[in-house]
Write a structure and sequence with these properties.
CATH class: Mainly Alpha
Shape: globular
Number of domains: 1
Structural class: mainly alpha
CATH architecture: Orthogonal Bundle
Distance between the termini: 31 Å
CATH topology: Hypothetical protein af1432
Radius of gyration: 16 Å
Bound molecules: fe (ii) ion
Mean pLDDT: 95
CATH superfamily: Hypothetical protein af1432
Number of helices: 12
Length: 203
């Protein structure tokens, strides 16, 4: 997808999201879009794709528990035991299906970016990792969880690649779950393993 096409899609989908999303989720989506674009621009990369994925990532965040379960079942999405207990974890996969089938989004990178945005994914490109990081360091989230402040500080340093910031976030979440005795989603572990192996390769 060319830069201009990302922008056209952003304009088209923005008016849809403004209609369907509750205001706080729409406002969060706009902040993530802008922040994801800035993370890319600061690292001399094109911001257009990250801005688009950031804008649409929470397209299904406003559904109810039963709607997430019903929609996931309808689309044939595998439901992990953690997701059965916390259906909100399905808002990424359901959102990606809605973007594809209700809102005619065709870009695989955009659809995969949205599908996996809660935990990250090994095949993510830089734009998706930028969206992932931006979603986690939305200033409203930092206010609710001050422990995320060091991640936000990493993001402000343009010499730190977005994959290193994403790795720090996944490590933070795994450590937090272990402290609290909570189960860790296998996708979070997969993302962390991928990001740490990439880190080793890059030296
Ligand atoms: Fe989300
Ligand atoms: Fe989000």
């Amino acid at each position: 997808m060319a830069k201009l096409e990302f922008h056209d899609e952003l304009v088209r989908l923005r008016s849809i999201l403004k209609e369907i999303l509750p205001e706080p989720i729409f406002a969060h989506s706009e902040r993530v879009s802008i922040l994801a674009g800035e993370l890319m621009t600061d690292r001399d990369a094109d911001p257009a794709e990250a801005e688009l994925i950031g804008l649409v990532h929470d397209v299904a965040r406003h559904l109810t528990n039963s709607e997430w379960i019903n929609e996931a079942t309808r689309y044939g999405i595998l439901i992990h035991s953690l997701e059965k207990n916390h259906p909100v974890l399905l808002h990424g996969p359901v959102g990606a299906r809605h973007l594809k089938w209700k809102y005619s989004v065709e870009s695989k990178q955009v659809l995969d970016g949205v599908y996996y945005h809660t935990f990250g994914y090994p095949t993510y490109n830089e734009a998706s990792w930028a969206m992932f990081v931006a979603d986690k360091i939305d200033p409203e989230k930092i206010i609710r969880n001050r422990a995320l402040q060091p991640i936000a500080e990493m993001a402000a340093d343009r010499n730190i690649p977005v994959t290193d910031i994403a790795l720090a976030y996944t490590e933070f979440r795994v450590a937090e779950a272990s402290t609290e005795g909570l189960e860790v989603h296998p996708l979070l572990l997969a993302a962390r393993s991928f990001l740490s192996s990439k880190h080793v390769q890059l030296g």
